[in-house]
Amino acid sequence: MEVAEDIASETFQVAMQAWGIEGLPPNPVGWLYNTAKNKAKNHLHRDAIFREKVMPALEENPFSLNDEIDLSPQNINDSQLQMMFAVCHPAISRESQIGLALRILCGFGIDEIATAFVSNKVTINKRLFRAKEKLRDENIRIELPAPLEIDQRLDQVLMTIYLLFNEGYYSVSQNKTLRKDLCLEAMRLCSMLIENEATNKPRVNALLALMCFHASRFDARISSSGAVVLYEEQDANLWNLDLISKGGYFLKMAAQGETLSKYHLEAGIAAWHTQHPDSIEKWSQILALYDQLLEIEFSPIAALNRTYALAKTKGEHIAIAEAEKLDLHDNHFFHGLLGELYEHIDKAKSVQHFLNALDLAKTKADKQAIRKRMAR
Hints:
The protein is an all-alpha fold. The chain has helices at 2-22, 28-60, 73-87, 94-105, 110-116, 121-137, 147-169, 176-195, 202-216, 218-221, 241-254, 262-272, 280-296, 300-314, 316-326, 332-341, 347-360, 364-375. It contains 18 helices and no strands. Helix 3 (73-87) runs antiparallel to helix 4 (94-105).
């Protein structure tokens, strides 16, 4: 009974935090029951590990309960930062870094991680086991790197947080609550870096600004039926003004220093996407930022996104020519964009690209969005 009460209390605490940011879910009672169920499963799993592994180890190596443990908020925060740098060690693969971060730093269960990666429990358990073995074999210590190393290692940590956010924002999972949780956890981890003087760097602020701007449009991106809503069709009234304001604050903080990172430029692009309505100035600024971004770090997807801004400023014909140079024929976004660009130029080509996009799309939400565009 006591355990059940604790789980219920934790569930309501999570609800207060999540609903305060995201608003009330469509089915609050179902949300509470589902969250409580997952917490109960995690509790039983941890309890079994404690009885089978921890207790026997404690009996072999007893310690004094009178030993002082620093449980101050500052020490807890520092400990999590140390663990963050440990699990984001370059000796571990990117997927394993994200998995360990979800498991150890965010408290996600194996089932939730498997859902996030569209995988299964066996695969995730093996991946986490190998990652932990690697940490042990490499004798990686749980500590903040030396001041001279922090800058170098920080990039790895930021990339892990960036990918963790992307797992939620562009997730193929249909679990809407889990997708938001992934994004919120990435933002929480980035906030911890900002709160520490040694890791509060301009590019860290730029990454948090980027995530705030993207998260501000989270609810507008998915319709009530679960379909992806195109940017130009989003209801701006659903955008979270508080997150947009926070994004602006962190982007301003990121302006200190002389280094321009990809996070600065992506945050700038995301910031302009929160400006409503459309204008030539808006899309010209977005296009210029994409040009800078591609100079710093070329990405075929960033180049593809640039062609949308190019169409808005210089017309569909020029954008089509640029898009077709990328030759991303195995990507459904590529065909979806060309379907849009050909809409008023060549109906047959437009429909064919939408059909190609439909074949390549992996999620039900993406397929619904493509069918809607074809019907139009």
